[in-house]
Amino acid sequence: MTTSAETTPLAALIAQTQAQDGTRRKGVLHASVVSQLRNLIVTGVLAPGAKMNERELCEQFAVSRTPVREAIKTLIQDGLLRALPNHSAVVSDLDLDHVTALIDVVTVIEGLAGELAAKNMTEEAEAEIGLLHYRMLLHHARDELPGYFEANKAFHRKIVELAANPVLLSVWDQLALRVDRARYSSNLWPKRWKAAIEEHQLILDALAARDPQRAGEALREHVRGGLSGLVAALSERRGTVPGPATGEIGGGAGSG
Question: 3-state SS of the chain?
């Protein structure tokens, strides 16, 4: 069943997410502020270059300055925020070189996951992945990008889980935060968002057919195609031409 958090724009989560009485411990507040700020950055509500105003954040989250300052330190370590000489922080830019390198790694990881998952596919797993695909279709039809994004992440993670390789899953989880931001930025292009839906169907068909080679290639093409438009946009901003490893996609970009 779809929850309200999956369909509510991320900008509204601050107003909805308040700690319950008796649970406002330091660790709980820190984790809560980190989670909410991270979501706002990943989804672009807080755009690159946006300055962190501690007083305003304290008011919005209804917390003291300590958990806000600690959350900012954590997100600087994550690379989502960049510290300034005056001790303030701003949202980090998406870096072309980093995104290009990320595509190279994630392409290999998810391609291998697809091959292994196809070998381990069961009727139960097929039904679960199919349900996540249906949820993505529903969110796309309703133009609900936050809900789509959550279902999309669950779709990809389920495939990696089905690969039954703990090292592969561990590496995927370590990269998840960086991939999330790149994928969400990519999905802001409507034409590519639609193409991502079609690619998910190809992935699902290959898994259902228990075809490792087709599943692996479908996922590799999906990752390369999905994020290449983001690379093209970042390259244009820098004034360079995208390299042959990622290429370009006409009419926009996205990933799923």
Answer: CCCHHHHCCHHHHHHHCCCCCCCCCHHHHHHHHHHHHHHHHHCCCCCCCCECCHHHHHHHHCCCHHHHHHHHHHHHHHCCEEECCCCCEEECCCCHHHHHHHHHHHHHHHHHHHHHHHHHCCHHHHHHHHHHHHHHHHHHHCCCHHHHHHHHHHHHHHHHHHCCCHHHHHHHHHHHHHHHHHHHHHCCCHHHHHHHHHHHHHHHHHHHCCCHHHHHHHHHHHHHHHHHHHHHHHHHHHCCCCCCCCCCCCCCCCCC
* 250 pLDDT more than 60: no
pLDDT at 246: 40
Q: Do 162 and 103 have their domain in common?
A: yes
pLDDT at res. 247: 37
* In a shared domain, residues 86 and 112: no
- Kindly state whether residue 57 falls inside one of the protein's structural domains: yes
Q: Is pLDDT at 180 greater than 60 in this prediction?
A: yes
Could you list the residue range(s) of the whole structural domain that residue 119 is in? 96-238
Residue 180, both tokens? 């999330």
Q: Is residue 255 part of a domain?
A: no
Residues 213, 120 share a domain: yes
Of the pLDDT bands very low, low, confident and very high (cuts 50, 70, 90), residue 119 is very high
